[in-house]
Design brief:
With about 280 residues, the chain is of the alpha/beta class. It has seven helices and ten strands. The longest helix has 22 residues, at about 60-80. It is globular, with a radius of gyration of 18 Å.
């Protein structure tokens, strides 16, 4: 995809302090991290015990807050599966430590997950989505919670998901929204840019376009209300703020309140149906 203009310049506040540009692409609203690390080089950007989704058992305020939000978020996420009776075979794309996957299994749902590393401690490249053992399987749902923004081959990955779904299948995607108030407030400190681990950055229209170009139809979307607070807390940490918890609650609440009118929430869930 052609890059032509810089949207914002950011720093890898999480780990390396390297500088990156978030640039526009030929798809309106779709942004890309430049320079884009190769699949081999990006591994080093995940090598940290502080990478929470792959190492959430550590102690500390962020890990506690993450575990709390994760448990609450599960029930919100599960609504998108339980509302459809055809939910006995689920593929969780980018399953990390397997929390969501294991919760589904405990509810009696047949589910499997893919992750690039067996220990979920390195790069989230998701090569296993193309693994041979999946070739003969079809799924009623594919879930991708904050994972599609990590893939190198965006269009090929979506096409592969299409092939893995049955004729009535749906894909449920959760992604950050750089048009939200918290994104505009924190600017280069906004934690959900997360360059270079996040290779792609979406607004609602661009996510809809890239999926519909690959044979899907958007049937439903819903905000992820709690994400505004968690992302704000991380952003305040990157700014080395005092009273970061109180400030993150304040900014997160403003973001969610304004989004009632603008519809630009910090993160959103999208449900796409496969078209034959």
């Amino acid at each position: 995809m052609e890059q032509n203009k810089t949207h914002i310049e950011v720093v890898d506040h999480f780990l390396t302090k390297e500088k990156f540009k978030i640039q526009k692409t030929s798809v309106p609203g779709l942004l890309q991290t430049i320079p884009t690390p190769t699949k081999e080089d990006i591994i080093k950007y995940y090598k940290s015990e502080r990478y929470i989704s792959h190492n959430s058992k550590k102690k500390g305020v962020f890990f506690f807050f993450y575990r709390f939000l994760r448990s609450v978020n599960f029930y919100a996420k599960n609504r998108f599966l339980s509302s459809n009776k055809n939910n006995r075979n689920v593929l969780d794309f980018g399953s990390g430590e397997g929390y969501f996957l294991n919760k589904l299994k405990k509810k009696g749902i047949k589910a499997c997950g893919v992750e690039s590393s067996a220990t979920a401690s390195l790069a989230t490249v998701y090569k296993s989505i193309f693994a041979e053992q999946l070739n003969s399987q079809k799924f009623s749902h594919i879930t991708a919670w904050h994972s599609i923004e990590h893939v190198h081959e965006l269009e090929n990955t979506i096409s592969r998901m299409y092939d893995l779904l049955d004729d009535k299948g749906t894909i449920i995607v959760g992604v950050p929204n750089y048009l939200s108030f918290d994104a505009r407030y924190y600017k280069g400190f906004w934690a959900a840019y997360d360059a270079p681990r996040h290779l792609w950055h979406f607004d609602k229209k661009s996510l809809k376009e890239v999926f519909e170009n690959k044979g899907f139809k958007l049937v439903r979307s819903s905000p992820m209300i709690l994400d505004a607070y968690y992302v704000s807390l991380l952003s305040e940490s990157y700014k080395k703020s005092t009273l970061k918890i109180l400030k993150s609650i304040f900014v997160g609440t403003i973001s969610n309140t304004l989004a009632l009118f603008t519809k630009e929430y910090s993160s959103n869930i999208f449900v796409f149906k496969k078209l034959r």
